[in-house]
Amino acid sequence: MPLMRERLTVVWIVLITATVVSTWVFSRATFRPPVAVVGTFLIAALKVRFVMLDFMELRHAPVPVRVAFESWIALVTLLILGFWFATPSLH
Amino acid sequence: MSCTVTVQQSLPPTEPQPCKSQRLPGVDGFWAFIGFDCVIFAVLFFSFLQARHGDPALFEASRRTLDSNLAGLNTIILLTSSWMVALAVQAVKRDELDRVPRFVFGGVSAGLLFVLFKSVEYGHELAAGITPATNAFSMWYFTLTGIHVAHLLVGTSLLAYVGTKSRQRAYHSRHRAVLESVATFWHLVDVLWIVLFPLLYLQR
Fold it and tell me: The domain containing residue B142 runs over which residues?
């Protein structure tokens, strides 16, 4: 199958696009820090989920394993955002 | 549900295996290590966040000295490497054995490029007088990225090994557990960087 028609390639393009948005769009001063930080880490969570489900093939893994790894994504994201909102604002 | 298939991994083709919807790639036990590593990194993230919570002004000032453009480029490089390694696993499943070493060594090349750019970044920081002893942020920065680079070097070496073996046609659709396990580790290296990058460089 041609490379461009593979699901893996579509996922890769989504991952690259998401990286460009979080690195070079949300970092602009036009975005208020809460918007930028929440947007950046939700994109990171989405990227991790794509890598785990499609590249690591957890989409077809036994349910308890998939739940464990998806819970890790949720836990880490909530931890980061929880600490960010609990930390005194610098802006 | 009693869904089974007969063509999986390196086991005899007659032995029943879980169907596609219930299968873990590679060696099952290796996933325990992957999970353990994820837990260790979650603890490290928590410790970093606690330290940042204690002195946000210092962490923000120090973060601004980092090169987020180079780190963003490195993120793209690592994602591309992961994509190529995933394509290698897909090629071996389809017995397109000529393509496997090309994809694996593509992944190795991208991994080495990441190390090169990270070394350039470290060089700039050290030249500017920023070392692990400079302050709490720089200690965490060098520790977290250093552990990640160590993972990356192990992963690159493992990929080079399976790439060499795949040139000798050592893997095919019924014998691919080692290649899949190495690929899984490589994707873990990618996952950890996807979190580390915004945590260190973009969290303002």
Answer: 25-202
